[in-house]
Amino acid sequence: MTALVLLSYEENQIRSTSRSTIAAAKKFGEVHALLVGHNLSELSQKAAKLEGVTKVLVADHEAYAHMLAQPVTDLILSIAETYDYILVSANAEGKDILPRVAGLLDVQPITDVVEVVNENTFVRPIYAGSILATVKSSDNKKLLSIRGTAFEPVSDEGGQASIEALSKVAHSEKALAQFVSVEVTKSDRPELESARVIISGGRGMQSGANFAMLEKIADILDAAIGASRAAVDAGYVGNDYQVGQTGKIVAPQLYIAVGISGAIQHLAGMKDSKIIVAINKDPDAPIFKVADYGIIGDLFEILPQLENRLANR
Amino acid sequence: MKVLVPVKRVVDSNIKPLVKSDNSGVETDGLKMSMNPFDETAVEEAVRLKEQNIVSEIVAVSIGEAKCQDTLRTAMAMGAYRSILITSDELLEPLSIAKILQKIVEKEQPNLVLMGKQASDDDTNATGQILAGLLGWSQGTFVSKLELTSDKARVHREIDEGVQILDLTLPAVITTDLRLNEPRFASLPNIMKARKKPIETIALSDMDIKTTTRLEMLSVKEASTSREGIILNSVEELVEKLQNEAKVI
Ligand SMILES: Cc1cc2nc3c(=O)[nH]c(=O)nc-3n(C[C@H](O)[C@H](O)[C@H](O)COP(=O)(O)OP(=O)(O)OC[C@H]3O[C@@H](n4cnc5c(N)ncnc54)[C@H](O)[C@@H]3O)c2cc1C
Ligand SMILES: Nc1ncnc2c1ncn2[C@@H]1O[C@H](COP(=O)(O)O)[C@@H](O)[C@H]1O
């Protein structure tokens, strides 16, 4: 059995969620990685070192520069025949592409896999993560998107994969979508999906400016900053900060929820964190039921104290 | 321009359903059902485009039990012009739903399918992308802003590192993020009016589509969430616990 893993990367770094996807793919047999994009020489070298990957297929062309669903789907379809499993990370990119491929292969995709029970049985969350369903696929090919938080990532070194260039090139004149631009949030902080510590703010933060209080603490703890949907909707921070059912799924060692009530859709994104801390002025806020430690009080008093205490420890 | 809006009837997203005592499935009997929140956003967007005279006709479509009528009535009370109901008592997966929608698209010839990015019950997030693939159309997923002209759709997509802007050639499938808009509540007069709007009912069995289930649900269980929730009295105590008890900082 051979599995194909579509790699996800940002700038010149392969995302840790892709290393988790490889970890899941290894359960099925040999693993090939597919690297799609433009100007990939540095990334190809990194991909070849990924633990457990035996071959890296590289499709390097302008037409793939923005990972648009249609050209990437056409590319995957051109090599799909040789693979029993096709896996992507369950991030926005993977979720955009995998089902399109699945539809054209007449396969029902299995999204957000959190456990591989055996070669055809998988566990995935439903109802905003409040319920876990065990599902068995009768499709010949299995198309899976993998939750990064559920699988320990493979190492980014030690592998010695061969690199093979793919000649199939998307025809840009047949492109159904044109890339216009991208607005990327620049940050020196660790990415949410792989951060050891995350501090998230909710509607209780009252403004985007007040997120500076979280940043100071994040600086001390080398933490990523997250947010609830309410905070994003209110415009305090960008959509890429959102944690939850429809945002990012995280599972850091430490998650600090500040001014977040703990709606089920938020919990869906962070309940698997090792330690959860809640800071909220409402003693009945549901977030306290999923927290290991809670402090009841006004965040505007507590955050400066916390910063001070952490800095002087 | 004509828009097709698929709407799914789901357990209201404020309710957490329970697992059946034999773990065979989710108990949904007697629970409040609503339109999938992402589909409400899609209907709202279509109605706004109609109000701006960019869209001329909105057709809502739902697949499932006869009760999906209620969901279609809601869509029509919000502003959809007419509806199609495909009745079936089977549990249908996104692949089958997409195949059914493909047939409806071929019949109705819309310029745009505007639908939710995910159903809040199965959370699959796949139907729109499968449909776009089957139709060979462009797709714009997780859209938080839409500008539509007669031959193209400019979409702002929520992606992992921020927002991506694409121009889609029409016809296209667009899936909505909740941030696209704030859906309206239907007014009482509009709810009354919607009762008279037409619903065309088609039995799935008359449609000649293979809907064999590919994913068998073996069992379900509750995901554990609750923790001890020790309430601490001071920040000093918290930092001490994080350092010495939990050892995470
Ligand atoms: C289909 C669907 C998908 C969704 N997806 C997501 C998702 O992915 N992520 C997500 O987060 N939400 C999601 N939501 C929204 C979710 O239901 C909640 O509305 C949202 O999480 C609430 O955000 P919040 O906790 O910041 O705001 P609120 O619920 O308004 O809570 C604010 C909290 O701050 C506290 N507070 C206020 N002031 C202070 C202060 N000075 N000091 C201390 N505490 C204070 C309050 O006591 C309150 O508990 C989704 C909803 C739906 C229907
Ligand atoms: N039974 C259904 N009837 C109508 N539309 C549906 C149905 N199931 C799914 N959809 C549409 O497909 C979208 C994505 O659903 P899913 O892929 O199941 O997460 C939903 O937001 C709906 O727009």
Structure commentary:
The complex is a heterodimer of chains A (313) and B (249). With 313 residues, chain A is an alpha/beta fold. In chain A, 25% of the residues lie in helices and 29% in strands. Chain A has a seven-stranded parallel beta sheet, sandwiched between helices. Chain A has a five-stranded parallel beta sheet with strand order 15-14-16-17-18. In chain A, strand 8 and strand 9 (121-126) form a beta hairpin. In chain A, helix 5 (211-221) packs parallel to helix 8. Chain A is globular and about 60 Å long. In chain B, 27% of the residues lie in helices and 33% in strands. Chain B has helices at 37-51, 68-78, 94-108, 127-135, 188-194, 235-245, and strands at residues 2-6, 9-11, 18-19, 26-27, 33-35, 57-64, 82-87, 112-116, 138-148, 152-159, 162-169, 172-176, 199-203, 215-222, 230-232. In chain B, the strands form three sheets. In chain B, strands 11-10-9-12-8-1-6-7-13 form a nine-stranded mixed beta sheet, sandwiched between helices. A two-stranded antiparallel ribbon of chain B has the order 2-5. With 249 residues, chain B is of the alpha/beta class. At the A-B interface, helix 3, helix 4, strand 7, strand 9 and strand 10 of A face helix 3, helix 4, strand 9, strand 10 and strand 11 of B. Strand 10 (131-137) of chain A pairs antiparallel with strand 14 (215-222) of chain B. Bound molecules: flavin-adenine dinucleotide and adenosine monophosphate. Adenosine monophosphate binds at residues 6-8, 36, 38-39, 62-64, 94, 97, 115-116, 118-119, 122, 124-128 of chain B.
Mind telling me the CATH superfamily name of chain B?
A: HUPs
Largest sheet of chain B, if any?
9 strands, mixed
Q: State the helicity of chain A in percent bands.
A: 25-40%
Which sequence of SSEs, written as H and E, runs from N to C of chain B? EEEEEHEHEHEHEEEEHEEEH
Low-confidence stretches of chain A: none
Bound molecules: flavin-adenine dinucleotide, adenosine monophosphate
CATH architecture descriptor of chain B: 3-Layer(aba) Sandwich
Assembly state (oligomeric): heterodimer
Terminal Cα span of chain A:
52 Å
> So how many helices of chain B?
6
